[in-house]
Amino acid sequence: GAYVSLSQVSKTYASSRGPIPALVDINLDIRPHEFISVVGPSGCGKSTLLKLVAGLEGVSAGSVRVAGRQLDGPPDRLGAVFQRDVLLDWRTILDNVLLSIEFTRKPTPAERDRAMALLKRFGLAGFEDRFPFELSGGMRQRASICRALLADPELLLMDEPFGALDAMTRDDLNVELAQIWQDTRKTLLFITHSIVEAVFLSDRVVMMSKAPGKIVDTITIDLPRPRR
Ligand code: ADP
Ligand code: ADP
Q: 0.90 exceeded by the pTM?
C-alpha cells in the first residue's frame, strides 16, 4: 500500500479579499521508500501540498493519510527541511541537530553519538561547536538535513531545500542527497521548481499547473542512479 495517500484533496485559503483556491482534486499515492518530486511554477500549490502532508495545514476537502492513518496534526515520524534553514542562532550546530529529539525529551548519549556521526557524514566534523552564522549556506542546509534525519523519520519532506543556494553548492548538495536517499531509502517528498533536478533525483515526478493548483502529469523516471 501507499505510505502517503492524498485522496480528492482540495485546499482553499481564506483571505480578506475572499477565498484563494490553492489546490483542487489532488490524488497522489506515495509508496514506501519512494523518492517523489513535485515541480511546477511559482504559486501552483507545491508548498501547500507539502504543508498538508506535514499536517501543518488542514485540507478543505478530501483526505490525507500517512502510514494508514488519517492526519489530524503532524505525523509521528516526520523530518522536514525548508528553503530557509531553521537553525537557532544561539545554539551550536550539534545542539541544533539535537533539537529534533529535545522537543520531546533529553537526548541519550547514543543519540549524541548519532548526531556526531551524521554531522561527520555530511562533512561537518569539527563544526559541531560552531554557531550557524559561522557556516556557509550549504553547510547550514547540511546541518538542517542532519537534524531532520536524527530522529530516524520514516518520511522526509523537503521544500526547495537548496533553492536559496548558489548553483554550484546546489549541484553538490543534489548529488549528496541522491547518495543519502540510496543509503537510507526514506520516503521522500521533494519540492523543486527545477524539472532537471526532479528528473535527476527522483523515482517519479509530479507536474503541477496553477490557477488553481492541480496535478497535470506524473512521470516515472527509469534512469541509472548517480553513484558514489
Ligand atoms: P508554490 O509553493 O507552488 O509557490 P504555494 O503553495 O505557496 O505555491 O501557494 C499556492 C497558492 O496559495 C498561491 O496562490 C498562494 O498565494 C496561496 N497561498 C499560499 N499560502 C497562503 C496563505 N497562508 N494564505 C493565503 N493564500 C496562500
Ligand atoms: P558549501 O558548498 O557547503 O556552501 P562553501 O563552498 O561555502 O560550502 O565552502 C566549501 C568548504 O569550505 C566547506 O565545505 C568547509 O569545509 C569550508 N568552509 C566554508 N565556510 C566555512 C567557515 N565559515 N568556516 C570554516 N570553513 C568553512
A: no
